[in-house]
Predict the 3D structure of the following.
Amino acid sequence: MQAAVIASKRGHKVTLIEKNKYLGGMLSVAAMAPPKWEIVNIVTALAAEANEIGVEIRTNCEATAETVSENKYDTVIVACGSKPIMFSLDGREKIPCSTAVQVLAGDFWPGNNVLIIGGGMIGCECAEYLSVYDKKITIIEMLDGVAKDMSPNLRDLLLKKLKGAFVDIKCNSKVKGITDKGVVYEEDGEEKLLSGVDSIVFAVGLKPEETLKNSLKKRNISFIDIGDCNKVSRLQEALVSAEKATINL
């Protein structure tokens, strides 16, 4: 949206294609975390501005290498974002599994006893979100602390909220697999069992979504990739990458 608005203001005819029903991408998902509800205002403002200045917006429409080639655009900017990382886990079929992004997006609703694998910002914010609904939550994190990818002030505030919600945080720990008795994990080198878990949420990071990029490369269609599909980063970096991409069009 940022790239579309800037390019349109500079006199270009712009088509914005979005495969989902709504605009906003990962930003709309992030806005579900209680401390970030106001972020949705950025989505609303950018969408309104794009519409007002004449950007052609197509939602529920997935761009493919074929459709891009057929329309013969002068410039293609790919901003397909990122996707959650999931890793293989022995016995994963025994317990319903999803990602923190799916939970925050409303695509998966966990049971009452939730294990979150990964204690970075996304995992902790997902825990806070679920705690509002009185879920019993355990976070298992490999590092010696959680939410280390947040600024100190925001991290301290979030940790206080998690403590108040009785979220059980296990650091220096790693999930090994799932058995009929429960989730097997290792904490400080000692193997332990977490029983009663009825849902597992993966929050172990994001990686660039490269499906369209790879298709365009095969057809030798040049493009500029911005935001998370270039490099997973924060909102400010994504907006800056959009501006840089449109500077020399």
